[in-house]
């Protein structure tokens, strides 16, 4: 008689123990499901298998013994395995053994109730337990016999597949601790990984709750009235780093929210935000690794101060050109000298500040480079703010020129209305008629003449520094740059945009 033994490939490297599985008498075959390792208590094994039989409706039993000899054979171990057949008393009792560093196995089936001296021919069939477990097969077909009893269609292998599929509880036995009964099956090879996964699953809920609490706390602090004070509110609204961190905080709140997405659109939005943050952080880490290789931050710090000196020298040359006769234009010499010296003094102060900070530049850049781990956009925002701070004196020149130019335009427009007998009604926000006396007209004429002759010098400084500011804005800034005809000035986008009002 042929005895078929279906043996899982994952148990071929298991330690010595008992073979647990199902005996199919119609097919004269045994389906091995797992190996129970030593040491164990036979009573606990029988109780455990009885519970599994009740829950899975699969007749699980101890079919035999398994010996994986990593050392030379021991007679005591062989006798002990033979004695186990009397304890569990299954007929036939299957004994499988594997020698050390050998490809050949020893298969013996002992039948106590059989009187024939003929030995059974044993066929050992390997099967992939994981694929069989995860396969979606039809259940075994049942046929109604003449005596109204259900019998299995033994001509098919669906019984074997159904046996493995119904033994799911056996494979889920040892997720954390194997306990007093140690098993080997298709999930045993990844016990450590499954432990980590299960721990991460259980830790994900309190972690998300903690992150949500911290994000809500930070969001509450950001929305508090303490940040509405002028210096803090100005810095928060103008620095691109603060704006980027605010957007990142909102995105993290959306991702870590415990609320279920109401529709598929919101779910895809949350997935897109999570993916964009993941890619942003990955690119930031790559940038950080590139910066810290070959001392690139040191080279950047060494080149930063000479670059600032070069920009300052070019500005000084530009101011000296404006203080002469720029493009053959005749300027008001007194105002030209005052404005030129005023701007040159600012450049001198800025160069002194840069040289004072030069010993700390490398350290500042080293710590700024660590911010790339928060994402590439955060690093670019910090870089934009650094460039803005380094060119802040240029923007101050633009602000001074724009303010002086706007004041003169406003004064000329008011004096022009005086000549026409008009005035601006502040209450009604309109131009009304008005009668002026001789002294008012005389003083207005003098002021109008003075402002008109000083306007070309002021307009030239304003135009030059506006073009310089736009040039630097094209390097580090973005956004829309336009001309406000109502204010008579160019609109420079954040982070350093000062609103220059007429009044």
TrEMBL record:
The keyword Transmembrane appears for this protein: yes
Record InterPro entries: PigQ/GPI1
Q: Name one GO biological process term.
A: GPI anchor biosynthetic process
Q: Which domain of life is it from?
A: Eukaryota
Query: Which key words tag this protein in UniProt?
Result: Membrane, Transmembrane, Transmembrane helix
**What PANTHER family does this protein map onto?**
PHOSPHATIDYLINOSITOL N-ACETYLGLUCOSAMINYLTRANSFERASE SUBUNIT Q (PTHR21329:SF3), PHOSPHATIDYLINOSITOL N-ACETYLGLUCOSAMINYLTRANSFERASE SUBUNIT Q-RELATED (PTHR21329)
What name does this protein carry?
Answer: Phosphatidylinositol glycan anchor biosynthesis class Q
Source organism per UniProt: Anolis carolinensis (Green anole)
Lineage of the species this protein comes from = Eukaryota, Metazoa, Chordata, Craniata, Vertebrata
């Amino acid at each position: 008689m042929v005895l078929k033994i279906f043996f899982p490939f994952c148990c071929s490297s298991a330690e010595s123990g008992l073979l647990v599985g199902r005996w199919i008498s119609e097919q004269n075959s045994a389906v091995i499901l797992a190996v129970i390792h030593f040491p164990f208590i036979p009573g606990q094994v029988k109780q455990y298998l009885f519970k599994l039989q009740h829950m899975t409706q699969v007749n699980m039993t101890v079919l035999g013994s398994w010996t994986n000899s990593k050392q030379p054979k021991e007679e005591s171990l062989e006798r002990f395995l033979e004695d186990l057949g009397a304890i569990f008393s299954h007929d036939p009792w299957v004994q499988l053994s594997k020698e050390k560093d050998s490809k050949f196995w020893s298969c013996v089936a002992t039948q106590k109730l059989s009187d024939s001296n003929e030995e059974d021919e044993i066929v050992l069939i390997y099967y992939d337990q994981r694929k069989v477990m995860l396969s979606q097969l039809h259940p075994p077909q049942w046929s109604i016999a003449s005596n109204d009893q259900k019998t299995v269609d033994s001509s098919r292998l669906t019984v074997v597949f159904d046996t493995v599929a119904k033994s799911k509880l056996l494979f889920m036995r040892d997720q954390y601790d194997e306990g007093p009964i140690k098993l080997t099956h298709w999930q045993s090879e990844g016990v450590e990984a499954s432990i980590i996964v299960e721990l991460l699953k259980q830790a994900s809920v309190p972690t998300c709750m903690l992150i949500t609490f911290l994000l809500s706390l930070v969001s509450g602090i950001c929305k508090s009235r303490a940040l509405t004070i002028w210096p803090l509110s100005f810095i928060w609204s103008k620095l691109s780093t603060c704006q980027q961190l605010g957007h990142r905080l909102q995105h993290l709140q959306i991702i870590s929210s415990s609320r279920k997405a109401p529709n598929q659109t919101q779910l895809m939005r949350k997935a897109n935000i999570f993916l964009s943050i993941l890619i942003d952080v990955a690119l930031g880490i790559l940038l950080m690794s590139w910066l810290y290789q070959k001392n690139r931050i040191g080279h950047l710090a060494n080149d930063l101060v000479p670059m600032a000196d070069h920009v300052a020298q070019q500005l000084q040359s530009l101011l000296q050109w404006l203080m002469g006769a720029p493009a053959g234009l005749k300027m008001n010499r007194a105002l030209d000298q005052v404005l030129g010296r005023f701007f040159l003094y600012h450049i001198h102060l800025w160069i002194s500040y840069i040289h004072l900070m030069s010993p700390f530049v490398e350290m500042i850049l080293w710590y700024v480079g660590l911010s790339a781990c928060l994402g590439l956009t955060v690093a670019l925002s910090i870089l934009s703010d650094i460039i803005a701070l380094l060119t802040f004196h240029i923007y101050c020149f633009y602000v001074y020129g724009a303010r002086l130019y706007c004041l003169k335009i406003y004064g000329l427009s008011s004096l022009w209305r005086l000549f026409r007998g008009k005035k601006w009604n502040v209450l009604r926000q309109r131009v009304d008629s008005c009668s002026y006396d001789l002294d008012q007209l005389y003083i207005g004429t003098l002021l109008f003449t003075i402002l008109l002759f000083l306007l070309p010098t002021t307009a030239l400084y304003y135009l030059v520094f506006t073009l310089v500011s736009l040039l630097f804005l094209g390097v580090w800034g973005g956004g829309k740059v336009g001309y406000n005809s109502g204010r008579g000035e160019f609109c420079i986008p954040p982070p350093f945009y000062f609103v220059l009002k007429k009044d």
